[in-house]
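Give me structure tokens for this 382-residue protein.
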Amino acid sequence: MTTQLKQESTLFDIAREVGTFRCLECGKCTAVCPISRYDSNFSPRRVVGQAFLGKNEDLLNSERMWSCLTCLHCSEVCPAGVAYSDLTLAIRAEAMNLGTLPACTHSQAIHTWVRMMMEPDIKQDRLGWLNDELKVSDDSDTLYFVGCAPYYGALFEPLGLDGAGIAQSTVKALNKLGIEPQVLADERCCGHDLLWEGDREGFETLAKLNKTLIHESGAKRIVTACPECAKALKVDYPAHGVKLDVEVLHLSELLADETWQGSSTNGSVTYHDPCRLGRHLGVYDAPRQTIEKSGLELVEMQRHKQNSLCCGTSGWSSCGVANKSIQVERLREARATGAETLITACIKCQIHLRCAMQDKQLGDDIAIEIKDMAVIAAEAMD
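Here you go.
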């Protein structure tokens, strides 16, 4: 039976290649999966089993294949070290090759601007958010990779999101450390969401375009305030044959290493660990050290660091009742700390949590001020 499946099942081969044969069927992955808590029809273990059995049609045409948050919580508890999200990524890529696409949120707006940036000859002016108070350089060893924050700021302004403010605060914080970074007028999206939704070709196109721009800049170090950009540039680019050969840091890592002391007046805060910065990159202490240097009192949520609850949505697809339930659960956890402000180091986490707070029926039950770490640090440095 095994021989027959190996010959006939693409998904069986994928499951073997990413090491899911080590699955012990203990069910720990499903027990901690945020989606499984609210959708009994979704289970990491069930997906592994379907792949083993070669149920190609069931998986490749299933809407639930796009439900996985790829938050890696399952991998944290798996006693066999199964890389479940690798299986998810491989299956999505196969589904994409066959023309199966996820239900896209926000009317395809985000995917549209991302794919526009895949055009090599497109000319952009991405630096409209810069002002006269911010100091940048054309030949600095440090390159600030902005990502899509200003675009998100325009799209999600009704949520109170200030994407341009995050970019401005990042440069301001770097300036306070004596760094005048390069910024690229023709920078492209890092491609993170295309990769994790199965579009490897689109991701690699963006990666190669960014590699050219980064190498032409002559920078030796990249700093970004976006965990997804950090993950893409540092891990996913090399994994797909696009090596940048430069140091990649999330802003919190740089702020934690540098000598400075702020005097924030924001009172007590709690911190939400983004999945890409935490479980994907293993960066837990740097954001907390940055908060401490800012002069803030940190009150941890019940689930934090490796056990942190995901913000409920990883890409811009398949956002439904389960996702909103996860976000509400996380906001209630933040409120339970008694902290005045929720700090996150990921703009997408902020977007998703702010979106959940629009529910008028829940009102003050989940309302809390949300700020980006870059903004908090820049304010504290004044």
